[in-house]
Write a structure and sequence with these properties.
heterodimer; A: six-stranded mixed beta sheet; five-stranded antiparallel beta sheet; 11 strands; B: mainly beta; four-stranded antiparallel beta sheet
Chain lengths: 112, 114
């Protein structure tokens, strides 16, 4: 089983739609969770951290379910500029060292 | 704060040559990580270093690849005797806390082996 699993997509949705991504992780000891965004041929950039209580940043809402080892990202009123690959990221202790483990990414295209 | 600086941005090497990729972490960050991304694929962890120490190299190929983070100067990822399959984007990231607050990435080095 992959440490972090995401649906690779692609997701093609019209502008203004609401879109949701899901992610599961295998290491129950993981402590920190993030969503990163990566534009084509660019570096990943932190979009938001994910907290147990859930958190919202404008049109973006992230949720964490520790019992199910499941993370989600919701984008409301999507914009053309939201087109990117969204990476689910988990911080875990693996082989004695803390490191971030990245999911494969979910590709999103917003259509006009 | 200049962020994580990687150079060169693009590197072309012939098969059999050596490639040296450099990374200067953000000011105040002592943790450095190298990731590789093949075209149309996800980020794959390669190595995690702190000053003068390799903490985790579980993602490094056993041969031809090495990394260092000396007391002074940038972290270096070295690939000896490059092959076409080494063509990829190599991203360096740094953190202050070992990942609890996420990583900051550099803009990457795109290696092309011809």
């Amino acid at each position: 089983r992959k440490e972090v699993e995401q649906d690779p997509g692609p997701f093609n949705v019209p502008e203004g739609a609401t879109v949701a991504f899901n992610c599961t992780y295998s290491n129950s000891a993981s402590q920190s969770f993030f969503w990163y965004r990566q534009d084509c041929r660019k570096e990943p950039k932190l979009l938001m951290s994910v907290y147990s209580s859930g958190n919202e940043d404008g049109r973006f809402t992230a949720q964490l379910n520790r019992a199910s080892q499941y993370i989600s990202l919701l984008i409301r009123d999507s914009k053309l500029s939201d087109s990117a690959t969204y990476l689910c990221v988990v911080n875990a202790l693996i082989q004695g060292a803390q490191k971030l483990v990245f999911g494969q990414g979910t590709r999103l295209t917003i259509n006009p | 704060n200049a962020g994580v600086m990687q150079n060169p941005r693009h590197l072309v090497r012939r098969r059999g040559q050596e490639a040296r990729l450099r990374c200067s972490p953000m000011k105040g960050h002592s943790h450095v990580y190298w990731y590789r991304q093949l075209p149309e694929e996800g980020l794959k962890f390669m190595v995690y270093l702190q000053k003068e120490n390799i903490i985790d190299e579980s993602g490094m190929p056993k041969e031809r690849f090495s990394a260092e983070f000396p007391k002074e100067g940038p972290s270096i990822l070295r690939i000896q005797q490059v092959v076409r399959g080494d063509s990829a984007a190599y991203f360096c990231a740094s953190s202050q806390t070992g990942g609890a607050d996420g990583y900051t990435f550099g803009s990457g080095t795109r290696l092309t082996v011809v």
